[in-house]
Amino acid sequence: MLDDAHVGDIRGALGTIAVGDHAARTTLSAKLKTLLAIVGPGLIVMIGDNDAGAFSTYGQAGQNYGTRLLWTLLLLIPVLYVNQEMVLRLGAVTGVGHARLIMARFGRLWGTFEVIDLFLLNGLTIVTEFIGITLAASYLGVPKVVAVLFAAGVIIATAFTGSFRAFERVAMTFCAGSLLLIPLYLMTHPSGSQMMRGFTVPGLPSGAGGGGMAAVMLLVIGIVGTTVAPWQLFFQQSYVIDKRITPRFIKYEKADLWIGIAVVVLGAAALMGATAAAFAGTGAAGHFTDSAGLAHGVALYAGRVAGALFAIALLDAAIIGAFAVSLSSAYAIGDVLGMKHSLHRGVGQAKGFYALYAALIGGAATIVLIPGSPLGLITEGVQVLAGVLLPAATVFLLMLCNDKAVLGPWVNTAKTNAFTSVVIAALVTLSIVLVASVMFPAITATQIIAIVAGCAAVALTAVCWLGIQGIRRRGRSVATDGDDSDGAAHADRMMWRMPPLAELAVPKITGARRVGLIALRGYLAVAMVMVVLKVVLMAVAH
């Protein structure tokens, strides 16, 4: 336990659970009250995903390709749930943040890589949130400086209250603002049949929108990056700890997560559908500018009220995104440096934590206000970089969730491991396709299918090898242990917590695992360079 403020009553935005309350929740009323007290981490982390970058990415998909990329959202639902379920389980059971666990279990080298990636990507992401704020403000007629300074003040002041409940209540208010996308969708009235076809018929619209298959793949990976981002893993685990959620309430936190997933997918679909309807037949495909351009297009199609609604929803999304991403970084750095890092503490009790949070917000606001800043370049690149970096974050997450010293009876099931392995393979495959699309802009759908098939064959071979190794390890374990069962596996799971990190033996990273991690890191470095190159070329072209 890195901060004693992480122990005590659960004081959520919508209810309280006393630390000594061990009563069984048998009635519907009791279960509902408990859920209301727990709800927050899953909802905030998911809605924080439909941020300014998401508005740009989903809006561009709708403008350029109509509803033909809606199917990507359905594929991401199980990915969202499995990734976030693993980190909420880690948070509730271990009481230690994600960055700290990586460093403790895999060494400072790998932990440093992950935290540096997170910090740089988060810093750029927060800049995109303020870009969204300026775009929304310009559409609504609010001066840029006034909007940026006001938003930065609100974001900083909300965290600086020294009250977890106050912060969560403000954050939840902004989460409710994301529901503005529903009336926006109704006002633009997209075709129901086209929406259904977009969800149910997967395809890559290479002939539309300009830019060829490379542009389509860049956008698909951008959708992945904006919907399943690395910062979410660090945020959710630390926020669950800060909210003092223990294993007894994991099922309620899972329900909270499902609520958040439902809201984020519906919001993304509404946004894509609204822009698809607004720009259909206008000849705007391939001429995406920014979110303000989307607002103007929506206004021309559905009226000024719809345009204003789009801008207000964008402003709301940017602020909740800045809340979550800044807090993710502050939690992670506090973890690594051993600083006190809790929203239950006042500024005087956790100076470093709040100073870092404020510096991230202040730095992003300053960059946006500097004349000539490459704002378009940053917006284009952040979501795609998130999609490229996600495989490494998911690999470490998977290994942590199979570490019995860390999770004891809460380790992953075989089904979760199998699904997560498929997710990692799919994410790596997407990034390989992206690199190929950048190097060969004229790549065809047939060639992409060939690349995917090749990656699938490699992944299948790796899975078979790992399966054989796992069977051998289990055989050796049975031969060594005989009929004795691991006592922790049969202990009361709801009361089991990870022992202090200092008491855990440092695991050995085998040669094969080390080679795999180095290969993944090397590949991601190459992929990042190629993504940056592609984004720069696109920015110059525009």
Name the shape in a single word.
Answer: globular
Helix content: over 70%
Strand content: under 5%
Mean of residue pLDDT?
85
Tally of alpha and pi helices? 21
Mind describing the biggest β-sheet?
2 strands, antiparallel
What distance separates the N and C termini?
A: 50 Å
> Low-confidence spans: pLDDT under 50, at least 5 residues?
477-491
Strand order of the largest sheet: 1-2
How does this structure look, described?
- Strand 1 (10-12) and strand 2 form a beta hairpin.
- Strands 1-2 form a two-stranded antiparallel sheet.
- It is globular.
- It has helices at residues 28-38, 41-47, 52-65, 71-94, 98-106, 108-140, 144-159, 164-177, 181-188, 192-200, 212-227, 230-242, 250-279, 291-302, 304-337, 351-369, 375-400, 404-407, 414-439, 445-481, 511-541, and strands at residues 10-12, 15-17.
- Helix 4 packs antiparallel against helix 13.
- The N and C termini lie far apart (50 Å).
- By secondary structure, it is an all-alpha fold.
Structural descriptors:
542 residues, mainly alpha, 1% strand, two-stranded antiparallel ribbon
What is the structure about, briefly put?
This protein is an all-alpha fold and 542 residues long.
Compile the SSE list and pairings:
Layout: E1 10-12, E2 15-17, H1 28-38, H2 41-47, H3 52-65, H4 71-94, H5 98-106, H6 108-140, H7 144-159, H8 164-177, H9 181-188, H10 192-200, H11 212-227, H12 230-242, H13 250-279, H14 291-302, H15 304-337, H16 351-369, H17 375-400, H18 404-407, H19 414-439, H20 445-481, H21 511-541
Antiparallel strand pairs: 1-2
Helix pairs in contact: 2-12, 2-13, 3-11, 3-13, 4-11, 4-12, 4-13, 4-17, 5-6, 5-15, 6-7, 6-14, 6-15, 6-16, 6-17, 7-16, 8-15, 9-13, 9-15, 11-17, 11-19, 12-15, 13-14, 14-15, 15-16, 17-19, 17-21, 19-20, 19-21
